[in-house]
């Protein structure tokens, strides 16, 4: 997968590149709109990440160009200017997603994967975890063909997110950002993730022990899949 | 008022001096008469002369030989016995000499007659006075309604009616008086200065929050990437985790300030229509995990038919989330939260009541101030922006908030919705 990162903040671009390269993406980087415009016109990408606040270029113009020369590419807008109008304009111009800064790299990756699933209809969405079958499309979880109805929406969200980032330790901050990220509230340190995990374990344990859900001491949680 | 009280005395005074003058004039007349024909015409054989109005005994004149050899020239009130009636007279006594003989002249006027004239006089004075007061009030009214109307308008529209920090275009107050025009312009200029300052503050918060987003983003990415590196020992990872937590705190504060400034700059649309009961249940679903820890029970009793119109759902969700979150955070173990909806005189009210630690009366006025934190023990997981968010969102929707609280008993936040915000679907 080819990714073009257009971001004038070099330190951030660098981190994005490291992260995406580790996740087996091939990265191309531009720090300004003019060179990005050239690259968009000459190369073909699967993903284009555009920062709207470029010093020399209107990010929305770049988005238009991308839609013209790289119609297959999925465009994700990254911006610190979380203004409602920008968001609406960006999505109107054909951006596939919109990620306000500051965002988690994991969140970026899960958005990119979601776009891929939408685009290519990759519905390898049924995952076996021990004795459990998790259907990401229909959002159900079953144990040996017995559907488990007690799992709540939030709990399923957590399982799905950990599954998406399988074999990777996710911190409580990362998990709570994912499930409560859009809510602006007074708490910055929620340990409510622990309560959720406890509930998930309790509910699944009545069927069989979810060994695949690991607590990484002092750090967070992880779903292990050996494949 | 003083004048009205003094009126009887005043009238009496005037009356008395008038009477005294009259008595003196009478005395002069009598002396003239006496000096003409001679005193002996009136006093014969040592018998005094006396004349009085026979029937009514209102006044009398007496002339007599004075046996005492002293000078008398007084005007006093005294009783006289006239034909068996004791009547109080105002009496002028004057003695004079004719030849070697001393004579005394007395001229009296009955006090009753004097008072008789005083009463109508007093009434007339009172009537004139009342008339004048009435006239003054009337003139005052005319003055304040017509002449001073621009002043009232300036106070009403420019000072009392002005809502900060919302910018309103200048509207001239109709007046032909240059002084009022000057006042109007001056007040407008003052308000403009205040508004500009407000605007600058809001811009600053907005810009500062925006500018902080990118560095926070960089830091967050760096920490996340370091987590992935295999050669980092676990103890370093724990420290990275602490850094992540602190960064999250910074992120929350920045996001919250940005949200508040965006609300104050009216960057949100109010185009959603939602069921209030559904909204509160959605919030409950998000937040229910937080009830578990302290085993708090939560009752929601909001009429299902209440429909919110022209609102911003995202913002109202955040409003209720923060209110209920506070109700949980400051609650006691096995406490209770009640969310009830009722109508009061056309207004729709939502009350969020907890059985928590409460807020003391002197702190209530400050709870909506940014970064104000009171409860030391709970510092660890909040930074005092929950209620300012609630307040900004409520203001944005013209929802009034009332707080009632009793320490150690609980707090109730009452949201009073404007009439046009809620409709009932039946």
Poorly predicted segments of chain A: none
Question: What share of the residues of chain A does DSSP label as strand, in percent?
Answer: 15-25%
Outline type of chain B? rod-shaped
Helix vs. strand class of chain A: alpha/beta
The separation of the N and C termini of chain A measures 22 Å
Q: CA-to-CA gap between the ends of chain B? A: 63 Å
Helix percentage of chain A? 40-55%
Please trace the helix and strand order of chain A, writing H or E for each element.
EHEHEHEHEHEEEEHEHHEE
Structure, described:
The complex is a heterodimer of chains A (227) and B (426). By secondary structure, chain A is α/β, with parallel strands linked by helices. Chain A has eight helices and twelve strands. Helix content of chain A is 41%, strand content 22%. In chain A, α2 runs parallel beside α3 (59-69). The model of chain A has no long low-confidence stretch (mean pLDDT 86). Chain B is α+β, with helices and mostly antiparallel strands and 426 residues long. Chain B is 50% helix and 22% strand. Chain B is built from eight helices and 13 strands. In chain B, α4 runs antiparallel to α5 (234-264) and α7 packs antiparallel against α8. The model of chain B has no long low-confidence stretch (mean pLDDT 84). Chains A and B meet through α1, α7 and α8 of A and α4, α5, α6 and α7 of B.
């Amino acid at each position: 997968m080819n990714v073009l990162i257009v971001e004038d903040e070099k330190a951030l671009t660098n981190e994005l590149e490291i992260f995406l390269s580790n996740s087996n993406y091939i990265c191309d980087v531009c720090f300004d709109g003019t060179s990005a415009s050239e690259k968009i016109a000459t190369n073909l990408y699967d993903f284009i990440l555009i920062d709207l606040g470029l010093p020399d270029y209107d990010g929305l113009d770049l988005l238009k160009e991308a839609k013209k020369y790289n119609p297959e590419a999925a465009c994700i807008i990254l911006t610190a200017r979380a203004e409602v109008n920008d968001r609406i304009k960006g999505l109107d111009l054909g951006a596939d997603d919109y990620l306000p800064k500051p965002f988690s790299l994991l969140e970026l990756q899960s958005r990119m994967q979601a776009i891929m699933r939408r685009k290519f209809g990759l519905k390898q969405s049924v995952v076996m975890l021990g004795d459990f079958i998790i259907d990401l499309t229909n959002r159900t979880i079953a144990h040996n063909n017995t559907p488990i109805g007690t799992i709540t929406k939030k709990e399923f969200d957590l399982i799905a997110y950990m599954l998406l980032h399988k074999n990777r330790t996710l911190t409580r901050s990362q998990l709570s950002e994912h499930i409560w990220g859009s809510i602006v509230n007074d708490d910055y340190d929620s340990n409510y993730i622990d309560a959720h995990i406890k509930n998930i374990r309790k509910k699944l344990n009545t069927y069989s022990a979810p060994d695949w859900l690991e607590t990484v001491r002092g750090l967070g949680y992880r779903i292990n899949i050996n494949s | 008022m003083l004048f009205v009280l003094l009126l009887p005395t005043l009238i009496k005074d005037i009356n008395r001096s008038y009477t005294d003058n009259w008595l003196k004039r009478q005395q002069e007349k009598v002396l003239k008469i006496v000096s003409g024909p001679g005193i002996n015409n009136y006093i014969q054989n040592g018998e005094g002369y006396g004349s009085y109005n026979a029937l009514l005994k209102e006044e009398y004149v007496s002339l007599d030989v004075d046996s005492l050899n002293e000078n008398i020239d007084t005007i006093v009130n005294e009783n006289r016995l006239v034909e068996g009636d004791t009547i109080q007279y105002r009496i002028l006594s004057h003695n004079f000499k004719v030849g070697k003989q001393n004579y005394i002249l007395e001229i009296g006027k009955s006090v009753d007659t004097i008072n008789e004239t005083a009463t109508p006089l007093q009434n007339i004075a009172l009537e004139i006075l009342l008339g004048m007061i009435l006239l003054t009030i009337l003139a005052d009214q005319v003055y304040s309604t017509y002449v001073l109307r621009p002043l009232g308008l300036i106070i009403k529209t420019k000072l009392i009616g002005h809502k900060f920090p919302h910018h309103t275009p200048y509207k001239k107050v109709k007046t032909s008086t240059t002084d009022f025009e000057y006042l109007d312009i001056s007040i407008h200029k003052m308000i403009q200065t205040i508004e500009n300052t407000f605007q600058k503050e809001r811009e600053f918060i907005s810009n500062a929050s925006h500018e902080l987003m990118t560095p926070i983003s960089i830091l967050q990415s760096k920490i996340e990437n370091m987590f992935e590196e295999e050669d980092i020992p676990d103890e370093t990872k724990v420290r990275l985790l602490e850094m992540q937590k602190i960064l999250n705190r910074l992120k929350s504060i920045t996001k919250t300030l940005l949200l508040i400034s965006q609300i104050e700059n009216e960057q949100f649309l109010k185009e959603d229509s939602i069921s209030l009961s559904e909204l509160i249940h959605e919030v409950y679903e998000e937040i229910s995990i937080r009830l578990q820890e302290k085993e708090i029970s939560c009752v929601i009793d909001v009429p299902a038919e209440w429909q919110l119109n022209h609102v911003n759902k995202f913002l109202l969700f955040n409003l209720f989330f923060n209110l209920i979150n506070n109700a949980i955070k400051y609650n006691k173990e096995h406490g209770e939260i009640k969310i009830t909806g009722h109508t009061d005189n056309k207004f729709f009210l939502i009350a969020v009541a907890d059985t928590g630690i409460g807020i003391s009366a002197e702190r209530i006025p400050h709870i909506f101030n940014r970064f104000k934190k009171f409860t030391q023990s709970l510092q660890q997981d909040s930074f005092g922006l929950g209620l300012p968010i609630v307040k900004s969102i409520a203001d944005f929707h013209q929802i009034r908030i009332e707080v009632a609280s009793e320490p150690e008993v609980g707090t109730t936040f009452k949201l009073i919705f404007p009439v046009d915000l809620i409709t009932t679907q039946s």
